[in-house]
Amino acid sequence: MAGVVALVASGCGFVVVHNANPGVAPDAIVIVTPENRVQLTTAEIESVEIRADLKGVDDGSVAVSIDTGDRWGDAIDITDAMTTLSQSEVVGLLDSTLIEPGITRVIVKALVGGMPIMRDVVFSYEPGIDVSLADRCEILGQSRCQLPFPSDYLTVEDPSTDTGRRVALHPEAMAQNTSGVKIDATEMNRNDGFSVGAAAVTLIPGLDLNVTGAAPITDLGSSLDSDQPIVLLDATTGERHPFWAELDSNAASDETRTLIIRPARNYPEGHRMIVGLRNFKRADGTTIEPSRAFRVYRDFVPTFIPEIENRRIAMDGIMGRLGDVGVDRRELFLAWDFTVISERSLSERSLHIRDEGFDSLGGAAPEFNVSAVQDNVDPTVWRRISGTFSVPNYLTGTGAPGSRFNYAPGSGPDALPARNGDFSAQFVCNIPRSVTSDGNDPVVPGRAIVYGHGLLGSKEEVNSLGFQANQFRAVMCATSWIGMSREDLGNVAGILNDMSGFPTLADRLQQSFLNQMFLARLMKDPAGFSSDPAFRAGSASSPAIATGEVFFNGNSQGGIVGGAATALSTEWTRAVLGVPAMNFSVLLTRSVHWDGFGAVARAAYPDDVDQVLNQQMVQMLWDRAEANGYAHHLTSDPLPGTPPHTVMLIEAFGDHQVTNVATETEARTVPGMRVWKPSLAAGRSPDVVPVWDIPALTSTDLPFTGSVLVIWDWGTQAPPTTNTPNRAGADPHGIGFGEPRVLSQVDQFLRTAGSFIDFCFGGPCQG
């Protein structure tokens, strides 16, 4: 054989082998242009010249041909197109219309002394692949820089982290607001992976999810079907992961309507996830073809593009893992992977300030000051006490709105917050009349309950619970969720206009967790509130608070961030989270509150894709400060130095403010959580399997002292199946405050030997 070129498909590309007949001088033919093993641009293809220097070749024996693209193996003779053919040189312009995307081989043959000799060069031509921004953007052919998201391509190797990777969002790739300010990714880049509840986001104009057969929000179980066109694979365990897929209903057009693939249960910390998309269809049933940038990987098409070839082994491995679960590589539209943040990277800041903060007490109670005492507040509240208490401050300045964690100057991405003096937190406590008769004997100390307020509210919300506290003899105290309290409204508005400020919200909330735990310590420690005359009653000046134990009750926002506070708490071990959920990137557009807040955000970032991506990116920080980042450790499998907890979740079916799907995703994620069944009356849920994959708790299982989700139905229509709010009927979000059976369930659960009590007569809980 006179000569051969071998293209050996492998994970890393191919090898070009040039052979000539033995004994023939190797330099009889030297191809000068085009260069061997290069990537040519469209402009270069238009003007590329074929030129070979010849030495001692036989007259009339020179022939030139090309193999190209999909026609590889069927060479085209272009000898007649050469302008100069002689014994010393062959020259000619390459006809660009003959060149197809892929590998092109230019072959020059001749005889030397009657013996055949061949020389060739190969180059790649990929006009559909743009790697000009490969240092900051994904390169899988999406029309937007950071899609698909999240992706390990947007990370770097870092052996110092628990996952071996670190997020590396490029500053120039971040979205910019209408003032031209790009989002600062510094705090996100501290993470060693992406959110435990991250949605996989892509942009595929023309996609029809119904025709494609993608798992909808109403049929989570179908996400695990063998023929499901979307596969979410845990590469660490080899198991499929449940999800639902939706198109962004808030987008203005199909051209900017992202596909959002949301996990139906949070990913395990530190695991690597693989996303595989196959057989995607338009409404007319035609198949949407993948980008050329993905096809070169899927179809083993070699290139001479370093940025592409450097990733080939990894991409081949991704598709191989998908093949292990039955995904035919030839069917794939797109595939990629991402790493989930580790437990330590997610929780270490909150754990650090908690442990260091409590160590600073040296076994004593926190310092506090009573600033106001109001007696005989109303028929249910005997005394209201206000004041301040001292908490180690880990924020900059005084910890006021807009502050963020205080780090030592010059500290690196793994630094932990440094104490910056003390924070003066405010509290308000209500002692119900059921504890004492107008301050007289007998005094029966009330259970200590820390209360967590709702969206951007304040500690004063606890003052509206006098009736409940009196009925169940509970002393309820509250301090504001700094970071998301009334005093933070101005800062929140600023964040919506410039998302670079988001760390100020997440960091202040983490400080608030420490504040809540210090408040709980003051309630349960005999040397705390009970040592002050304001918290004593009767002739013997007896304590009005039963010390030794404390419980937690948070509602709405207090249930969302209260889930994180509970997972971190060393002070209470039983909690009720009312109308709660997790993962603000799921919650935001499904809440009627987004009507106002979203309008501000969209005015600053009007692009549809930016809206979705921004929500996913800040979720990486929100995870540190809400239940989404702590659900894996909310009950059993507690965080280091933390006791297990027992938790009740109370869902309001059809909630207009906190979407049910996020509550149920939390219940699926929390270890050991069960759901009271029957959870809803027949026909109430649009789901194929209501509250899918949450173990049932029925009347035959009672008494039950574990963690439970209970769904209360007041007749509101089921929530929509899109990522928009429920607006139908009356909002049931706060109805539970006035429902005696709900209050009795809470009361019975928040006890030392508390348990779930069925006030629904063995059936669904209906109001």
User: Helical segment tally?
Assistant: 15
Q: Summarize model confidence as the mean pLDDT.
A: 95
Structural class: alpha/beta
* Shape field: elongated
The residue ranges in which pLDDT falls below 50 over 5 or more consecutive positions are 1-24
Helicity level: 10-25%
Our estimate of the beta-strand percent is 15-25%
Q: What can you tell me about this protein's structure?
A:
With 767 residues, the chain is of the alpha/beta class. The protein folds into four domains: 29-125, Sandwich (Immunoglobulin-like); 152-339, no CATH class; 343-549, no CATH class; 551-583 and 626-767, no CATH class. The chain is built from 15 helices and 32 strands. Helix 6 crosses helix 9 (502-524) and helix 9 crosses helix 10. It is elongated and about 125 Å long. The N and C termini lie far apart (86 Å). Residues 1-24 have low confidence and may be disordered.
Write the SSE topology.
Elements lengths: L28 E5 L4 E3 L1 H6 L1 E6 L8 E6 L7 E2 L6 E2 L3 E5 L8 E11 L2 E11 L29 E3 L7 E3 L32 E4 L5 H4 L17 E5 L4 E2 L2 E5 L10 E6 L8 E7 L13 H7 L7 H4 L2 H13 L7 E8 L3 H17 L8 E8 L5 E12 L29 E11 L14 E6 L13 H6 L2 E5 L10 H9 L4 H23 L11 E2 L4 E2 L7 E5 L1 H12 L5 E5 L5 H4 L6 H11 L3 H15 L23 E7 L7 H10 L4 E3 L19 E2 L10 E6 L26 H10 L15 E2 L1
